[in-house]
Amino acid sequence: MSHEPPVEDPDESVRRAAAANPSLTPEALEALLADSRTAEGAAANPSLPLPRMHALLDRCLNGAATSPSGGH
Questions:
Q1: What is the pTM of this model?
Q2: Which is the most buried residue in 3, 43, 53, 63, by most CB within 10 A?
Q3: What is any Pfam family matched here (predicted)?
Q4: Which helix (H) or strand (E) holds 47?
């Protein structure tokens, strides 16, 4: 196997770009989705399985619908 993308790089933009690398396995993507530092890039990954993408969207949409407005 070739070198893994630099998902542990100190630079945030490098981590996000690495997490979006289409050569990552679904298992690697799951780990990256669970990490707030790389979740954005992993969610944009073209290799993300469609059912997982739908689950993420459902969670985001349901969370937005049930969260109190203006709360941070």
A1: 0.72
A2: 43
A3: LRV
A4: none
